[in-house]
Amino acid sequence: MLSHNAEPGSSELRLSVELDSDEALRLLGSVSLGRIVFTQHALPAVRPVTHVLDDGNIVIRTHDGAALTSRAQQADGRGVVVAYEADAIDPDTHLGWSVVVTGYARPVTDPHEVARYQKLLRPRLHRTMDHTVVIRPDLVTGTRLTETGGAGDVVRPRPEDPPAE
Questions:
Q1: What is the average pLDDT value for the chain, to the nearest integer?
Q2: What integer is the mean pLDDT of 102-108?
Q3: Residue 38, CA distances (Å) to 91, 116, 157 in order
Q4: Which long-range contacts (CB under 8 A, 24 or more apart) does 128-131 make?
Q5: CA distance 66 to 39
Q6: Residue 125: per-residue pLDDT
Q7: What pLDDT is stored for residue 41 in this prediction?
């Protein structure tokens, strides 16, 4: 599905192109910062976190008092439903991409897995991050915002976008 978006007052239109799930996950894996959305006291809560993509799963580290840590530990074996969003959108041109993953987050309890993830993912906060949470994607959606090409809406990729593999 293609749709045109324009900033109010702007004459420049953008083309919104839906991404397939493989491309969306590839783009998500190309950045290290995203936002996790979960339920806290029956309301949505959003936290910025760093992540790594490992075998199609999103891995984040949390601290002992984190609301997500508590929710994931209290959930049944499947985990707790979360959404995860990451993007790379230029603030001036509004070109780039956005990916949203919905799935189940569960705590990692195996000491060998925890140690491996601690090596793969270094937290950026000056805080002890001794818990690891894995999100298994069930629904992956993504959108790329590109310039329109005029007649026929030819899409011009941005040079800073990661190449397709």
A1: 81
A2: 92
A3: 26, 25, 33
A4: 128/63, 128/64, 129/61, 129/62, 129/63, 130/61, 130/63, 130/64, 131/61, 131/62, 131/63, 131/64, 131/66, 131/69, 131/107
A5: 13
A6: 56
A7: 86
